[in-house]
Amino acid sequence: MELFPNGGFVRLRSRARDKYVHADADASGVSLRPLGAAPSVNAVWKPEHWPGEEDIFLLQGAAYGRYLAVSDQDAPPGHRGVRAVQRDYNSPHVDAPFMWTAFRVDADQNYVRLHNHQRWLRANGRHRYWNNVVTVDTRNGSLTTMMQWRVEAIPVSPQPLPLLPPPQQPTIHVSRGLFKRRAKVHPFAGRMIRHVQMDDDGFIHDKPEFNFNDYSVSNLRTELALRQGDENITLCLRAGIYALAIPLITDLPHNTDPLDIIVVTTGSPGFEMLEYPQFDEPPEP
């Protein structure tokens, strides 16, 4: 479908709730969130057409590289259906839970319903507005606006987005006097970083794995630059063996799952092929 251009970027805005499908920071959950004054990359999805099937596509999260998928987890109380989740792309089958088809319901305003094997992506919380988990349901697919989404195209740019700066170290306060309390620091347990280097000819070279005890994308880039002996690098994520590599432009997800990082030399042919969402234009009202 033309609303989901292969390799473009889109946002999905609920017709009923006026909020957006948002990739949660744990790189697993999917929720409804307002766009905010500064548009978040977590609300951006990259369509990828299934080979030979223009009407079937995947939606890859621009934040963590994982794909919008149907789970077998029951929805929380107050929600309908099962949870929508972010999932690595490790299965090549067309009946996989991350294959979507769009059906127009309002051509003038680009509203669609998103279908996966007789199941429909839906918002929740029409009356209980605090119920913000995105789910997938089989009921009332053609009747309710909770299953209707406005597709907002986002311009594509070759210009890299600036990385978030490293977080400041928290200030630790210890009370003075007779009853002193020691401030406890609970460090992040860390995650395994599996990284490879892409040379100028597009060949991949494996590099040693290492444990990284931080969430900061800027600190990860600094660590990899030291290990590569090269400051002129750009980081990409690959969420699954069949996943497309996507530029890493936000802090790491709040989990301990290993990450597969592709290190690309800035200015190389591989770097020139990378594309980024452009946030200069606000969404339509």
Automatic annotation (TrEMBL):
Residues 1-144, 190-264 form the DUF569 domain. It comes from the Eukaryota. This is Uncharacterized protein. The gene is LOC103629522.
